[in-house]
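pls ignore typos typing on phone
adenosine monophosphate + seq
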Amino acid sequence: MKVLVPVKRVIDYNVKARVKPDGSGVDLANVKMSMNPFGEIAVEEAVRLKEKGVVNEIVVVSIGPSQAQETIRTALAMGADRGILIQTEETVEPLSVAKLLKAVVNEENPEIAILGKQAIDDDANQTGQMLAALLDWPQGTFASKLDIADGKAEVMREVDGGLQTISVELPAVITTDLRLNEPRYASLPNIMKAKRKPIDIKTPDDYGVSLDVRLEQTNVAEPPKREAGIIVESVAELVEKLKNQAGVI
Ligand code: AMP
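k done
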């Protein structure tokens, strides 16, 4: 069984994002970039499925600038077998990503595509769902547990207020939630080995997909600064402040 794992290169989750002075976006100059954390979880899950003998090939795909090759190499060092970089310097919206991934699926014929539930840069949470719709495949989103057997995937999903378990026929799209697993760190020997694994470099044109832009980002702003709290002397004072100052009761 082959699995496709799309991974996005995003601003590192430890970096405090700075908004550009003109409010046109987040300043990415000289900022550390890494694999989207939900993508790491997707790669880890694919590697675990390979270790269990359920999967025999893991193909990683990233759409982005040439530096996204580093992101693919990280996935190869974690245990993926080969990579595809669809290289572009343009902004690629979730619908265009989904169309490109559909074209890759048609070429590669994987039985499962494991995506992150969202990319932590734009927090779109759209690509997996759009890919499933374009392919007419079932989807198991926000997975916190995944079992594959008898041509089916059993997915425990994190939903509002609890967990839901569904069974979907393969081929299917799965998107990963935080609790699915804890991604491994690549060992030095595996990082060295990953240098010899193949990465195909393609362009969106190779797949006949145009990157039409449909969304306009009109403004990006920092969240308001949190004001210092106060310590009250008594419950009565707390109730008085909640009533008369905060106006919440
Ligand atoms: P999003 O819908 O943008 O929040 O992204 C959800 C998931 O789609 C990510 O975790 C990735 O698995 C995949 N994805 C989104 N953008 C890209 C990209 N440029 N390259 C590869 N995978 C992507």
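Residues 2-246 form a domain with the Rossmann fold fold (CATH 3.40.50.620). The helical segments are 37-51, 68-78, 94-108, 127-135, 188-194, 235-244. more later
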